[in-house]
Amino acid sequence: MAIRLKTKFHTPGQRSPATLASVVAVLAWKLAIESIKRMRKADYDIDPGRPYFDFVCEYLAFLAVAADRVAYRALDEAARSEFTSALVKNIARFVEENNIMLLGEAVPGESQRHFIDLFNRRAADYAEFDYTEQGPDFAFKRFFAACLRDVLPEKDKLWVIDQAMDIEAPESLKMLEKTLTGLFNPEQAKSQRRQDLRGSID
Hints:
Elements: H1 17-41, H2 50-74, H3 77-97, H4 99-103, H5 110-126, E1 131-132, E2 135-136, H6 138-150, H7 154-184, H8 186-201
């Protein structure tokens, strides 16, 4: 997946949760667009217009919920709330700014409201499932796959479950978790990079 990760800032100093959220929102957008390109290349029929829009929004909601779960482990309640609120608003703004690409045409402000409403619904849905330090449980990923299945044509519904659970979710979450570790716990990320470097030299 040719996406550049931003796991640290070039200047020292602590960043607000809202600033961290702006970085994660950019990554989430890139991951969603990369996924839909990969799936269309694999002959999934995700047509421009509503199917394209719905797929991207479901993918972004999944990543936003996952980021919120990671924030729960790393931030206090107030910081987590600020982070997640800013993340969802930033993603919603990207959806709105790209509504012509996603939908073809859209009523101003409608796409932004749609994503925020979708996130609120999905946050409640995913709350039924676990997301630990090892990542999401089977049911979490299975629900994500079911959400994608619902926006695809009949011929693709059967195959998308495996694609989403075995490829799309793991690939995206690996990059998301790595970025969040670097942003929330820079010392831990630095230590991990040292270990990786020693491992490659040995």
